[in-house]
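Long-time lurker, first post.

We've been arguing in lab meeting about whether zinc ion would sit comfortably in this protein at all. Half the group thinks yes, half thinks no, and nobody has a model to point at. So I'm putting the question to the forum: if I give you the sequence and the SMILES, can you give me back a predicted structure of the complex? Inputs are below. Any interpretation is welcome too.
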Amino acid sequence: MAIKVVKNLVSKSKYGLKCPNPMKAEYITIHNTANDASAANEISYMKNNSSSTSFHFAVDDKQVIQGIPTNRNAWHAGDGTNGTGNRKSIGVEICYSKSGGARYKAAEKLAIKFVAQLLKERGWGVERVRKHQDWNGKYCPHRILSEGRWNQVKAAIEKELKAFGGKANIFSSSSSGSTYTVKKGDTLSEIAKAEGVRVANLQRWNNIKDPNKITVGQKLKVKGSSFSSTKPNNKKNFYELPSSVFAVTSPMRKGSDVKQIQKALAALYFYPDKGAKNNGIDGVYGPKTADAVRRFQLMHGLSADGIYGPKTRAKIEALFK
Ligand SMILES: [Zn+2]
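Top reply:
Settle the argument with this. Predicted structure of the protein with zinc ion, as tokens:
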């Protein structure tokens, strides 16, 4: 049975802010909201606030609500004005991810079905599904990632898609990580899209002069894909995290040690708050830093006291390994 979509679209007067560009979507991007609001509240907040942040659909345990038309872009992928995520992908937010539990599980289940339906409508395979993290490294969908279930979610989408009679996964049959075996009917641009690489790169890696000339059974090198990482993409950064304990004190502690904590949390998108104008790396262990630490702890199963210590340090470090 088809999933009904409730429409509560942004007003045209807000197109310039929320969805300025026409879009021909090529991907679907999955998010976790990182809060406990319902889909109705998510969408009405997005519609009415003055931030440009926007997304196409919010899904909770009961319904799917649409806020932005799918033929317009939304700002949800963090990859810039011309980023593929922002300009070519449909953003789907899964609600209640902050606290998780049964409500979240039901929301995720409905989202999986809904994404399969979107794929089916477009004749796409599950290879068109991306996580927010793939576009800019943000640790999102945070709950799915921290529970190590991204592949499981993709498999569940594929299962639903098959139940809808949709396209089989291009990956499961033909791709083995760094090579892809050409199937009948494949085009280089389709393969490039599925593997998340440029056609020009496929040509270069495989010495293909004419992109229209590929043969069935041909093994193509598809290295260079940036879509397989499950860790923040800036893991190259090395933060010298202090081994001492930091809490909000009076006077507040300040120094390069604290800057390292702030920088690491910023790279993981916990510091500063989403949407803040300056990055706020001031080296002061004040309420803002403590709050970022608290949210980080909450998302990573630590006791959320806002105090930076050995356990928090170890968790942060593990994410950069
Ligand atoms: Zn996201």
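For your lab meeting: Residues 101-122 form the longest helix (22 residues). The radius of gyration is 21 Å. Whichever side wins, do check it experimentally.
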